[in-house]
Design goal:
The protein is an all-alpha fold and 336 residues long. The protein is 78% helix and 0% strand.
């Protein structure tokens, strides 16, 4: 039963993350750099801090924990800064490819590299059992199939339909940005691996990764803030923040987007707390989260009509890819 609960909680968090770009469409008259950093305040600061506080026993503090594990905390933060680069390009991949295809390619790269490089960088390569490796390979196969569906869609759709579904659609630029985003986004799980010991013994299992999550998102916030404020200056969009009549609407949807985005890692922490009896799935949990993110992002892509007008063959290929990804989430446990 714990296995079911763990996977279900991770799935709920994944669904929330895949839904996080929907509220952004409700933001009015702000440039990309303005709404991106405002939603980032919630996604990478406010909610991660609130989540991390759940892991703090009475009489303890997060600053004390980080000081006691200085090296691990620093490495977690540094990889958070690197992940921030992936976060920036991740948003751009949605801009150029749409929710479905953009997340599929970026998260595919992120999924495989994050699952493998995390244990490797922290000296725990022995955790990469054959079952985990096979799971990663199957995940990549599923994402590759979805990528084929995306290429078929791009080849078949008239230019005006592409622009209608995704305003700034650019397949070539989008592919490059999405691959870069996936590579750098894998640094999130590497950061979590370095922060694996950032908890107290009395911290409940379900909350133990939340302090490390805060350090990673804090690093990402620094990267994103620097870039967005640079863009505000370059594009002369500081005036966005002075549009007082928009703050009520835009702050609400930025907050909602940030909450939905953070839910994936809150759900990952809770889910892993239920999977302690399944070490293979603990190691593979990053891949599970990313796989489900791809599945749900494509569901949203269908809802948002990004696949409207494509052939049945293309939709069939897409569905096959989704099924393969769903299978990949529990395959390693069956092989263990």
């Amino acid at each position: 039963m714990n296995l079911v609960f763990g996977l279900l909680i991770i799935a709920i968090g994944s669904f929330c993350q895949s839904s996080s770009y929907v509220p952004i469409n409700k933001i009015k008259e702000w440039s990309w750099e303005s709404y991106w950093i405002v939603q980032g305040v919630f996604a990478w600061l406010v909610f991660p801090i609130l989540g991390a506080l759940l892991a703090v026993p009475a009489g303890e503090s997060l600053t004390g924990l980080f000081s006691a594990h200085g090296h691990d905390a620093l490495m977690t933060f540094i990889f958070g800064i690197l992940w921030g680069i992936g976060g920036l390009t991740f948003g751009l991949s949605m801009r150029y490819l749409g929710v479905a295809l953009g997340q599929s390619i970026a998260l595919g790269t992120c999924s495989a590299l994050g699952a493998i490089l995390g244990p490797v960088f922290t000296g725990h390569a022995g955790e990469l059992t054959s079952a985990v490796i096979i799971g990663v390979v199957v995940t990549l196969v599923g994402i590759a199939i979805i990528g084929v569906a995306g290429a078929m869609k791009s080849a078949a759709m008239p230019e005006e339909e592409k622009k209608k579904a995704v305003k700034d659609f650019n397949f070539g630029k989008g592919i490059f940005v999405a691959v870069l985003a996936g590579f750098m986004s894998a640094c999130f799980n590497i950061g979590l691996s370095f922060g694996a010991d950032l908890y107290w013994e009395s911290t409940p299992e379900i909350f133990r990764t939340l302090p490390a999550t805060l350090l990673v998102t804090l690093g990402g916030f620094v990267t994103n803030a620097c870039y967005c404020f640079f863009q505000n200056s370059k594009n002369k969009t500081w005036g966005d923040y002075r549009k007082g009549h928009l703050w009520g609407n835009n702050l609400l949807f930025c907050c909602l987007a940030g909450l939905l985005w953070y839910s994936q890692f809150f759900g990952l922490s809770l889910g892993k707390g239920f999977l302690t009896e399944y070490p293979v799935l603990i190691t593979f949990s990053w891949c599970i989260l990313m796989s489900l993110n791809v599945v749900f992002s494509n569901v949203w892509g269908i809802i948002l009509k990004e696949w409207k007008g494509v052939s049945r063959k293309t939709i069939s290929v897409l569905l096959v890819g989704i099924v393969v990804l769903i299978i990949s989430t529990f395959l390693p446990q069956l092989l263990a």
